[in-house]
Amino acid sequence: MSETSGAGRGTVTPTRVVIALCLLAPFVAMLWVGSYAKVEPTFIGIPFFYWYQMAWVLISTALTMVAYVLWRRDQRARAASRNSSTQDGGASS
């Protein structure tokens, strides 16, 4: 195999860090029960414990969408750079 086929496969980039944080945040927020295991403040009569969790359903959806868009953009950029390096490498040989 050529060196370019596996190059950058496990590279940590700022975009990938943001993707990981977007996907990790809902888990941390929901698993840290002590932070939201209380009644006050209530929202339209709903205790904090319940509306906090329901808010995270919407927040998780938004964060997952952001992560997906960033991932697609990262994959397209990697494919474009791979194609340009393949074309440049083939033209100079």
From TrEMBL:
Coiled-coil regions listed in the entry: none
InterPro entries per UniProt: DUF3311
Keyword Cell wall biogenesis/degradation: no
Record keywords, A-Z: Membrane, Transmembrane, Transmembrane helix
Transmembrane region(s): 17-37, 49-71
Name of a matching Pfam family: DUF3311
Name the record gives this protein: DUF3311 domain-containing protein
